[in-house]
Design a protein that fits this description.
This protein is of the alpha+beta class and 391 residues long. It contains 13 helices and 17 strands. Bound molecules: acetoacetyl-coenzyme A (CAA).
Amino acid sequence: MTTQQSLSVGIHDIAIATGHHVLELDDLAERLGVDPAKYHVGIGQDAFSVPAPDEDIVTMGAAAAKEVIDRHGVEGIRTVLFATESGVDQSKAAGVFVHGLLGLPKGVRVVELKQACYGGTAAVQLALGIVARAPHERVLVIAADVARYDVDTAAEPTQGAGAAAILVSADPDLIEIEPAAGVFTADVDDFWRPNDRSTALVDGRLSVSAYVDAFIGAWDDLAAQGGPAFGDIARFVHHQPFTKMAIKAHRKLTQHVGEPFDESELAIGFTYNKQTGNTYTASIWIGLAALLDLDDDLAGQRIAMFSYGSGSVGELMTGIVRPDHQQHRRVGRVQEVLGSRVRLTVDEYRALHAAGAATSEDVERPRVTAGPFRFAGVRGGARHYEAVAQD
Ligand code: CAA
């Protein structure tokens, strides 16, 4: 007990990856005859990533994880937790493909987690528990998703694709996670995806109120667990299906606790997600990466992280940012990841969308991605991945 209380456990590194292509929402607005301000201001998004035909959650997750492994090696990694809403197989964990692509040692357990967009946070909590019990171990958490809705629906502009790899360790470089967490579950049909669909079904308005309910519920539970006062939290970062959703929820929380609302405090955490679009399980971690990369006043400060997965589960965690976290900023790398995407026309994006449904039919995929790994196709009903030679 004494050992666990004094042990600092948290997030040691974060890397992000996204799809090869990007659709600018200005282009979608022009096609649909919508005022672009509805997207930029009304929902708070500028663009979304679109995977190439030879990309999916495995290739994006492996690309993000490779960065983490390149920086820290594999020593002590005995667990890989892969969280996703858009899994590629009903049985095999996506992380097993990643394990193979990265050449991880055989002495590793791998499992996949699911609860809509919340799964990555559940994985981080499991990882914290493993490291608290075995501090010499490190856990590789991967959160990756392709957010797909039907075209010509209200949800179309809120699609996206991306991955985050998070290394959880003792004595972390970035954030020490505090023990108390606020959790909330309510059975609600705001967003779901039946097994025979490759696009999600969503009641957009209900998802906003369900998210707000989960945020307030998780806050109240955190308070009941002895969590910090609102004034002792320097920054909040939220799951961001679209950034306006986080703004709406945060406004409600400030009303709930009787504090002034300052929307500008949230802006830095939106920087990357406005470009990737919704990345489901990865969204909160991409928001956190933006905050750590771009906010100059975080050292030694407490931040709160709110995760939400439709259906619904919410969790509010807090952590203390390490005093020297700025030595580990990755802003240049993220700009490269986002800036190197290839812009699509609306027709090109829609053609990719139409071809993007999962299949078990044998198929070879064309070489398109510039990432380190690609989905080569389906052979004998099984998915095949391969490394791509890098320049
Ligand atoms: N200028 C500025 N603002 C404008 C505007 C203009 N010209 N035109 C409209 N707006 C504003 C509207 O006033 C509105 O703002 P408020 O919400 O503050 O009132 C906003 O733009 C959106 O307008 P609408 O409500 O008319 O838009 P819509 O009907 O097209 O739907 C949406 C918007 C509900 C967000 C829809 O895109 C949607 O359903 N998206 C998916 C919802 C979603 O992602 N839910 C999250 C689920 S959680 C998750 O991530 C899933 C998971 O767990 C895996």
